[in-house]
Amino acid sequence: MPRDALSFEVHRAAWRSLDPQTREIVLDTAMTNDSQSPLQHGSWYYDHLEVAQRRFALSCISVADQRVIDPGLIGDARIGFTVRCEPAGMMRLVVVGSDTVPAEPDTIEFGGPVPGDC
To answer: For strand 103-104 and strand 74-83, is the pairing parallel, antiparallel, or unpaired?
Structure first.
């Protein structure tokens, strides 16, 4: 029986320097549609990324395969953030659901036990 939620995971994180003050962080994510309706996999689910206890907005998204994810299926995406802090220590991806379907979990922590410095 469906839980009527969207489940999110981060499978891989990578980063590169764009210049001495900015970095690009790229996350490979998966969204499982545990609702009873087909749902689009889009940028609106990825609220922000916290690095060194600072909030950074999504800068790009590339959805693999299908944009519409049927119930019970998984959709993959690669999302990017431009940040001004070293991507070290704990980072937190904050995701949101829709008006009718919650996101589980609503935060995904990765990278270490404590936040890095900026």
So the answer is: unpaired
Rounded to whole angstroms, the maximal C-alpha distance in the chain is 50
Q: What is the DSSP letter of 100?
A: S
How buried is 65 (Cβ within 10 angstroms: 0-12 exposed, 13-18 middle, 19+ buried)?
A: exposed
pTM for this entry: 0.91
Both tokens of residue 36? Answer: 């009873």
CATH number reported for the structural domain that contains residue 70 in this entry: 2.60.40
Looking at the structure of the chain, the number of domains it has is 1
Q: In sequence order, what are the residues at sequence separation of 6 or more whose Cβ sits closer than 8 angstroms to the Cβ of residue 19?
A: none
The 10s digit of each residue's pLDDT in 22-41 is: 999 999 999 999 999 999 99
